[in-house]
Design brief:
Helix content: 55-70%
Largest sheet: 5 strands, parallel
Order of helices and strands: HHHHEHEHEHEHEH
Structural class: alpha/beta
Distance between the termini: 35 Å
Bound molecules: CO-5-methoxybenzimidazolylcobamide
CATH topology of the largest domain: Rossmann fold
Number of strands: 5
Number of helices: 9
Shape: globular
Number of domains: 2
Radius of gyration: 17 Å
C-alpha cells in the first residue's frame, strides 16, 4: 500500500518521476483521489511553502517541487474532475498589461494549485478587460495581479477601477504582488490583499475567502 507521506517526501525533494509512479500506484490501489491530493501532494507543497518562507529553500527548489506536484496532478486531475471534488477556491492570475515578466506569476500559480485552488492563468501583458472577463466567466473568487516594473504598477489600479465599473468590486477579491509592490501601494489602490512571495500568496488567498 502506498504511503502518502512517501508521496509528500518525494514531492518536497522534487522527484517528479517517483511522485508520478507513487500517485499512479495509489490510484491503482483505489485510494480516493482527494485523499492522495490532500495528504500527499498538498501536504508536501505545504512543507515546500513553509521552507521557502523561512529561506531554507530557494526558487529553483520550489520550481522543481512544483514540477513534481504537476506530475502527480496530471494523473489526479481527470479523476477529480469526474468525482466533482470541490477546489479550495477559484483563482485567476495574470501579469498586467505592458509587463511580460512571468516567472514570479507562474510560481504563485503553482503554489496556489499546490494548495488545492483551481487556477486560471491569464498570461502576461493582460489588460484590465481580460481580468474582468475572467472574473465574470469563470466565477473567480480571487484575482491575482502581478507586476515587475514600476511603469506597469498603475495598470493594477486601472484593473481595480474596471472591476468596480463592472460591479464586481467586493464580490471578487483582488490580490497584488511583484518585486516593486508593497502593502502601502495595495492600500493606496484599494486592493484586498498583498503578498510578498508565492507562499504568502497562498496564506493571503485563504484568508481572503475565509
Ligand atoms: Co526584466 N526587469 N525587464 N526581464 N527583469 C526587472 C524586473 C528589473 C528590476 C531589472 C533591473 O533593471 N534591475 C527592471 C525593472 C525596473 C523597474 O521597473 N524599476 C526590468 C526591466 C526594466 C525590464 C525591461 C523594461 C528591460 C528592457 O527591455 N529595457 C523589459 C520589460 C519588458 C516588459 O515587460 N514589457 C524586461 C525584460 C525581461 C526579460 C524578458 C529579459 C526577463 C523576463 C523573463 C520572464 O519573466 N519570462 C526579465 C527578468 C528575468 C528580470 C529580472 C532579472 C528577474 C525577474 C524575476 O523573474 N525574478 C528582474 C531583476 C530582478 O528582479 N533581479 C528584472 C524572480 C521571480 C521569482 O521574482 O517576479 O519578484 P518575482 O516574484 C516573486 C514575488 O515578487 C512574488 O512572488 C514571487 C516568488 O516569491 N510575486 C507575487 C510575484 N507576483 C505576485 C503576485 C501575487 C503575490 C506575490 O499575488 C497575485
Amino acid at each position: 500500500m502506498v504511503s502518502l507521506k512517501e508521496v509528500a517526501d518525494n514531492l518536497i525533494k522534487g522527484q517528479a518521476v517517483k511522485v508520478k509512479e507513487l500517485v499512479q500506484q495509489a490510484v491503482d490501489e483505489k485510494m480516493p483521489a482527494d485523499k492522495i491530493l490532500q495528504e500527499g501532494l498538498i501536504a508536501g507543497m505545504d512543507v515546500v511553502g513553509t521552507k521557502f518562507k523561512a529561506n531554507e529553500i530557494y526558487i529553483p527548489e520550489v520550481l522543481i517541487a512544483a514540477r513534481a506536484m504537476q506530475a502527480g496532478m496530471n494523473i489526479l486531475k481527470p479523476i477529480l474532475a469526474k468525482s466533482g471534488a470541490k477546489p479550495a477556491g477559484r483563482f485567476a492570475i495574470g501579469t498586467v498589461k505592458g509587463d511580460v515578466h512571468d516567472i514570479g506569476k507562474n510560481l504563485v500559480a503553482m503554489m496556489m494549485e499546490g494548495a488545492g485552488f483551481e487556477v486560471t492563468d491569464l498570461g502576461t501583458d493582460a489588460p484590465p478587460e481580460k481580468f474582468v472577463a475572467a472574473a465574470k466567466e469563470k466565477n473567480i473568487q480571487i484575482l491575482g495581479l502581478s507586476a515587475l516594473i514600476t511603469t506597469t504598477m498603475p495598470i493594477m489600479r486601472d484593473t481595480i477601477i474596471a472591476l468596480e465599473k463592472a460591479g464586481l468590486k467586493g464580490k471578487v477579491k483582488t490580490m497584488i504582488g511583484g518585486a516593486p509592490i508593497t502593502q502601502s501601494f495595495a492600500d493606496e489602490i484599494g486592493a484586498d490583499g498583498y503578498a510578498p512571495d508565492a507562499a504568502s500568496a497562498v496564506d493571503k488567498a485563504k484568508e481572503l475567502i475565509k
